[in-house]
Specification:
mainly alpha, two-stranded antiparallel ribbon, 8 helices
Length: 231
């Protein structure tokens, strides 16, 4: 059985030594920063697990326990960044309301462990793709939770999903464009329309970037890239 505590300590040290991730953690100003942190911290986590745990020779229960501890820790880091990002979003819209964050579910670790066990010989890329999907998914769910609540409050929600060719199914930027991702790319001023369009869905290793802004007495102009006051 891998030493989970040692893996977590090593992972935490790597995050602290990474100046870019440390800066994003402390100073996230929007969901673009939160997405960058989630992708970077997920990569660091996958590298740490791969280097310190022989996941190919672990039982499914052992792997589930390891992943649960690691993913739960990472989830706490990512959602802390999301709180800063959503707080900044709210301040830009002159909204004096609290920010919401996504909950962590242990089911994620069980599902991930089952996928890795089923692969017979899990590669680093397979592990990395699964971990990054989950770390970025924490940001997706946070955006969705805030946008849903703020939409119900009658606020203008502007959601953008952009395709990132570094998050392809084949794992290389030179692969064919991912049509699954391209079908979900877009801009929406309505939360439910974005949700129905699959804006918050991801495949393993998906690198699409989702951002969110909210308005109160103004509307977003996609063509101008600016807010227009309604009063």
């Amino acid at each position: 059985m891998a030493d989970v505590n040692y893996i977590l300590r090593t992972y935490g040290l790597k995050l602290r030594k990474n100046s870019r991730l440390s800066d994003l953690y402390k100073n996230a100003k929007d969901y673009l920063d939160a997405m960058a942190y989630a992708k970077g911290s997920g990569d660091e986590l996958a590298q740490t697990i791969s280097a310190l745990a022989d996941i190919a020779n672990m039982s499914e229960d052992e792997l589930t326990q390891l992943l649960d501890a690691c993913l739960k820790t990472n989830h706490g880091n990512v959602t802390a960044v999301c709180l800063r990002a959503q707080g900044a979003v709210n301040r830009r819209a002159r909204l004096n309301i609290g920010a919401l964050t996504a909950d962590y579910s242990p089911e994620v670790a069980r599902t991930m462990a089952a996928k890795l066990i089923d692969s017979q010989d899990p590669s680093f890329e397979h592990l990395k793709n699964l971990v990054i999907k989950e770390t970025m998914g924490a940001v997706d769910r946070t955006i969705s939770k805030n946008a849903s609540a703020q939409s119900e409050m009658g606020l203008t929600c502007h959601i953008v999903r952009k395709y990132d060719d570094r998050g392809l199914h084949a794992g290389t930027k030179w692969a064919e464009p991912c049509q699954w991702c391209l079908e979900r790319e877009g801009e929406w001023d309505n939360y439910q329309e974005a949700y129905n369009a699959g804006a918050f869905e991801r495949h393993d290793g998906c690198g699409c970037v989702i951002t969110y802004e909210v308005g109160r007495t103004r509307t977003w102009s996609a063509s101008k890239g600016t807010w227009t006051n309604l009063d």
